[in-house]
Design goal:
Helix content is 77%, strand content 0%. It is mostly helical and 386 residues long. GO terms for molecular function: transmembrane transporter activity.
């Protein structure tokens, strides 16, 4: 099968699967209203349910070496089917909070067999250009993250029922599509090997790449989460007319360009050098943030676009390094495990950021996000990855 077609099918299947996460997060208010749910921090709890499900799921997939013991395309397809059913279960009327929470948790849990496994499949098909393939793959996911803001910017009133139904249906299509690809056969791994996790982290190169990824994740999702508030604060400070949702979409989606460009650059230059450059730029953006409210609107928005590009450009490159430095036959487990810990870092970072917001203005809080990319920058050296 043509390589371009293969990558297109992988990207579409992955995009359809992760739309279960992104599209539902954009309509949590409507879901809560439809089921008459009223509780303190309801929306935060439903958001955490999906994140927590993904973390527990990816830990389980890692411990059981599922992505390496079974055919990757079948793991992907079964996981995406179960995730779509859990997502669609919310359509049942008059559910209690615990049931809705469980549905979101289960959706996140089974998505652990979609995102990391999709990266393993892409790495199999493009062994000599992994960074480029993952750049396109992660770039598509960035667009998926940003797309709900694009819809919201036009005040389009779509039924939450319709969004859930379509996202679940597309996810099933993605799962079926993956079955037709000549995806990698199962690795030479027959038994569960729980000891593989400590063995992975004894590998100096894998540990360095993973620390880089964890630092990157400390910044990424917190930046995406609180970006609309930063733009809104600037808008109120300067009393100007800004479409917050549209600019949030443009800034987050600019990261897709960063992923694709960084992936191609890594083919010509050393991957870790391109990764470190991206980490350094995004860390600098964090440190500049307190002064950004002095910028004119055009400079402020240009600055945020640069940040939006650099904050995620290193993501496919770090996954490439993790894939490259993992133990033989266990790259699926390695990618799933690193993703698990990375998403755990996002919860800690978002919680910490939210606490700081109660004590200081938002432009000053973003300084603390620089901790992540700076740790990642320092962990990636030629010596540590050799």
């Amino acid at each position: 099968m043509n390589k371009t077609l293969v990558l297109t099918l992988i990207v579409l299947s992955q995009f359809f699967g992760t739309s279960l996460w992104f599209s539902s997060n954009a309509i949590l208010t409507e879901i809560a209203t439809a089921h008459h749910l009223v509780s303190k921090n309801l929306l935060a709890n439903l958001t955490i349910a999906t994140q927590l499900g993904f973390i527990i799921g990816s830990l389980g997939y890692s411990l059981l070496n599922i992505a390496d013991r079974f055919y990757a395309n079948r793991v992907f397809s079964i996981s995406i089917l179960l995730a779509s059913l859990a997502n669609a279960a919310i359509l049942i009327p008059n559910l209690s909070f615990s049931i809705v929470f469980s549905c979101r948790f289960a959706t996140g849990f089974f998505l652990a067999g979609v995102y990391p496994v999709g990266m393993k499949i892409a790495a199999h098909f493009f062994p000599k250009s992994v960074s480029k393939a993952l750049g396109v793959l992660v770039g598509a996911l960035v667009l998926g993250t940003a797309f709900p803001y694009f819809i919201r910017s036009f005040n389009i009133n779509l039924s939450w029922f319709f969004i859930i139904f379509i996202s679940s249906s597309l996810a099933i299509v993605g799962g079926v599509t993956m079955l037709f690809l000549n995806t990698p056969s199962k690795e030479n791994v027959q038994k569960i090997n729980i000891n593989i996790i400590p063995k992975l982290f004894k590998n100096k190169a894998f540990k360095a790449a993973s620390i880089g990824y964890f630092g990157h994740m400390w910044e990424l999702y917190t930046f995406w989460t609180f970006l609309p508030l930063l733009i809104l604060a600037y808008k109120n400070e300067h009393q100007i007319n800004l479409n917050v949702s549209l600019w949030t979409f443009l800034i987050i989606s600019s990261g897709a360009i960063g992923c694709v460009v960084a992936g191609k650059l890594a083919l010509r230059k050393e991957t870790f050098k391109v990764t470190k450059t991206s980490l350094l730029i995004s860390a600098t953006c964090c440190l500049i943030c307190p002064f950004s409210f002095w910028f004119t609107p055009y400079v402020f928005l240009a600055y945020l676009i640069i940040w939006g590009i650099s904050v995620v450009a290193d993501s496919p490159l770090l996954s490439t390094l993790i894939n490259k430095t993992s133990l033989k036959n266990y790259n699926g487990t390695a990618l799933t495990l690193s993703t698990c810990i990375g998403f755990l870092m996002t919860i800690i970072s978002i919680y910490f950021f939210n606490l700081l917001l109660k004590e200081m203005n938002i432009q000053y809080v973003f300084i603390f996000l620089a901790i992540g990319p700076m740790i990642g920058f320092l962990s990636l050296t030629k010596k540590s990855l050799s």
